[in-house]
Amino acid sequence: xxxxxxxxxxxxxxxxxxxxxxxxxxxxxxxxxxxxxxxxxxxxxxxxxxxxxxxxxxxxxxxxxxxxxxxxxxxxxxxxxxxxxxxxxxxxxxxxxxxxxxxxxxxxxxxxxxxxxxxxxxxxxxxxxxxxxxxxxxxxxxxxxxxxxxxxxxxxxxxxxxxxxxxxxxxxxxxxxxxxxxxxxxxxxxxxxxxxxxxxxxxxxxxxxxxxxxxxxxxxxxxxxxxxxxxxxxxxxxxxxxxxx
Length: 245
Prior knowledge:
Layout: E1 2-7, H1 11-22, E2 27-33, H2 36-45, E3 50-54, H3 62-69, E4 74-79, H4 85-90, E5 95-98, H5 103-128, E6 137-141, E7 148-152, E8 156-162, E9 165-170, E10 173-177, H6 181-185, E11 193-197, E12 200-203, E13 209-211, E14 214-217, E15 220-223, H7 226-235
Parallel strand pairs: 1-2, 1-3, 3-4, 4-5
Antiparallel strand pairs: 6-7, 8-9, 8-12, 9-10, 11-12, 13-14, 14-15
């Protein structure tokens, strides 16, 4: 989970970012404020992975905030002024979002953060573990007492919630295990798997089609929840072939 903080002197701008963050299963909001000094004090005492930072702020300007932070957290600048972009990138910001911020553009910026997190985790794993198979995998306890099954992550089509259980669907069939959706989400790549419904988590590379409020995977229709549809469509937006109009 990526811990986020939002700093902006406009409450409406904060509300928009909080709404967007709430759509992203890999993000969690830990703090928001209209006061930059208050935000800076919070960061000194609490771990924050990603900061959405406005440039024009009372007390402490965004670029001053950025310099004082010294790379402690990743920064996405949010502003209505494009002329500060170059200076921002000189301080190794992650991205630069111009207001009004569209969700699709927000998603693209956040994907840069999740890509970095995955790369760091991969490098850390390689340095601390013996040589592994190129295929990533998980082990899950099954219904059979004492049995643990290996599942290759790329083989997973989708994951379905059944009360206290989840069903992991592959081309070979379904494996039931006594864990929650949140448990399994911590073990699979956030850029590859997306929540489309409170009961369904799908491998985005296995989606065959989307028809109205359904996703089809291996010919199985899966429902798309209303609050998840916008995020799903934004996530695949750069893969949709668009003709000239």
